[in-house]
Structures are given as C-alpha cells and as structure tokens.
Amino acid sequence: MKLNIRSKIQLTATLIVIISCLFYGLYIYGIIDFRIVSIGDLNPYGGWSALKCFFTDLSYRWKGFSRSIALTAGIGLASFLLGRFFCGYFCPIGAMQDFFKYVGNKLRLKEIKFPYKPELLKYLVLIIIMVLSILGMGNLISPLSPWLAYLNIFVGLRLQPGVLILLLIILVSLMGRRIFCRYFCPLGAFQSLLYAIGPMKIKKGACDCSYCLKNCPVSIDYNRVEKDIPPECINCLQCVNGCIKGKEGFSINFNNKKINKSAYISICILIIAGSYILLPLTASSSSIQAITSITDINDGTYEGYGLGFGGRINTEVTIKDNRITSIKILSHSETEGYYEEVFRDLSYEITESQNLNLDAISGATSTSRGFLNSVRDAVNKSLND
Question: Which residues contact 239 (CB under 8 A, 6 or more apart)?
C-alpha cells in the first residue's frame, strides 16, 4: 500500500506519541532515568487548565509556557488561521479511527452512515467539560477521556474507564467514519469554532460531481456545501486533489487568495510544532528558598494536606536532624498518568535539596501545587510543634 503525504504525517505523529509514552512508562517505573516528554506534555487541554487557574485560583502565578500550554496555543493558532489541521494530520485518536475504518473496508464490512444533526453534541460536550472544570470537578471526567486512556495504554498504567470508550470507538470505526471526532470530541469543537471565524476556507469550484467527497473522513455531503466547506471539515485536503472531470474542484483560500496544498501543510506543521518546541523556552525560572534557612523545624512525623486536581492530597512528612528525610503519600484522587511523576520526582527533589519552592511538573501543575502545599502544611505543623 502506497501512503500519501497525509498518511505519512499521521503515522509519524502517532509513532512519536507512542514512543514518547513508552519511554515515559520506563521512566516513571524507574527503569531509565530520562524521558522524552510526559503525558502532561501531550495534553492539548493544558492551555484551558492554565486559563481556568488564572481566573479561579488567587495563588496562581504565570511562569511561562509549559509544553501542554504551548500545544494548546499551537493548535488554537493553527485552527484560527488555517482550520482543523491538527484533527486531520496530527491527532492520534483521529489517525486510529481512520486506520480501523481502512481495516473495516478491507474486511468488507457494510458502512454505517451517521446523521449530521448530532454533530452539535460535541459543542455540548465542550461546554459541560468547561463548566465541570471551573467547578473543580475535572477529575470526575478525566478518567473517561479516550485521549488519556490511549496514552496510558502505552505508558503501561492501570486501565481506566476511558479504555472502554476507546474500544467502543475502535469497534464503531470499523463500520463508520470518525464518530468521536464528529459527535463527542471537545477539542474538535473548539477548533471548529475557531475555524468558523478564521480567514481560511476550502471553497467549492465549478464542478458539481461530488466525487472528491466520496471518501471524506467525516462524511461531509456535497449538498451541505454552499460556497465553503463547513467547519466540521478536518482539513484532510482529499477534496483538493483536483476534479476527475478536469474542472475546477475545491481549493484552499486564505482571505480569498488561493494557496498551494504543500505550502498549507508546511505552514501548519511549522505553527504547531514550532509553538510546541519554542514557546516553552520562554518559561521563567522560579526563585529558590531552602527550608534549611528555617531553624525551628522539629523532628518527627507530620501529616499535611493540599488541594490538587482531584481534591485533597494527604502526605506524611518525616523530619530528622532538622531535615526532611521522607515523604509518603497517604491518600489522593489525582489522575493516572499525571500524579506518578509529580509524587516521585518532587519527593526526591525536596529530600535532596531541602527546598519547597520547586517548579511544577510540566502538564501537571494542579497536582504539583497540591502536593507541594501538602508538604508545606506538614512542615508548618512541625514549626508549631
């Protein structure tokens, strides 16, 4: 099978994600001492989490772009300027659905035609997730995320409810096209809204044969296209390949000026990848204040509490000879794939450096802050003992 440029990019992006997750799994289990990126760094909702904290948490301080915030920024900018390129080329969940639809075709399974009206559901999902997140109940829905489940499978963590949703998506994808993208993906809804108000559009040409939309991954019907393809489009550009009748087919237009397909793909990759790589380099470093400068901490074992992403984090801190010697997690409700690195690395850094003003783990800011606050709470109790 000869792969086109889109399939090559999808395959490359998927392999990068899988390899990164495999290395991260080896890292958090202590098999290797380095990682490429964490699961938190692959979180495309990081920008929303930071924005929510900025408006709802008085203790929040902006320290620059984390990887996850940079990913959100890159996706958002690309979506506004050039449409849902991330959905069509980079998203591993989208690539997974395309792959299993291809498998279904090879197995000659009868295709199910999904209706169009339920596509509005994903906007409702987006609103529900935003509201629950603002109300501090994001931990209730994160285990249901097929995105997080997908990543955790390759990390090797315990299976979550989202895995069942992921399996259901795979089964349906054998017979239907991108059901998750069309009906349930909040990130797709976010990008569609930006695409709708942005300057880039895929415009209809003189041809009316509709053959170029025959294999559209999201089943856009030619009859639904007036002048522009609707924002449900994932910008796979299959319809821009040229009309079989030799007439003018669909074309990519930016502010009513046609742009080349190869240039479009290159610019989109540059925006998303460039944002992800370069924006975190602007992050500021935090100030250092070692707890060894505090001379009145008393030896003993103390419990502390802090508020993380999933609720209260309870830690047990042991102080001996005026130093923190161990930190034990007593209870928490944090999300798998995020808390493991936080608890492991920050515990090590605190006991080694005797410093409580550490930087949060990228992509797991709420969990990091909750954990650090619980340790600070325990240390404060030693001061008052």
Answer: 202, 212, 213, 216, 229, 249, 250
Biggest alpha carbon distance in the chain?
85
Domain 291-384 top-level CATH class: alpha beta
Structure tokens at 233: 């489009």
- What is the spatial distance between Cα 194 and Cα 171, in angstroms, rounded to a whole number? 30
With beta carbons less than 8 A apart as the criterion, state whether 363 and 338 touch: yes
d(CA 49, CA 133): 8
So what's the pLDDT on residue 290?
47
Residue ranges of the chain with per-residue pLDDT less than 70: 1, 57-60, 157, 242-247, 283-296, 385
Structure tokens belonging to residue 252:
């990519």
How far, CA to CA in Å, does 368 sit from each of 226, 241, 250?
49, 48, 48
CA distance 214 to 180: 20
| Pairs from 98-101 (Cβ < 8 Å, separation ≥ 24) | 98/10, 98/178, 98/217, 100/170, 100/173, 100/174, 101/173, 101/174, 101/176, 101/177, 101/178, 101/217
Structure tokens at 156: 């090797």
| CA atoms of 222 and 297, how far apart (whole Å) | 72
Residue that has been written with the tokens 């930006």 in this structure? 194
Domain boundaries, the chain: 5-198+259-282, 291-384
3-state SS class at 318: strand
- Residue 195 CB coordination number (10 Å): 27
Q: What span, in angstroms and rounded, lies between the C-alpha atoms of 289 and 331?
A: 27
Taking phi first (over 0 means left), then psi (-120 to 50 degrees means alpha), and beta for anything else, what does residue 284 get?
beta
Coil vs helix vs strand at 251: strand
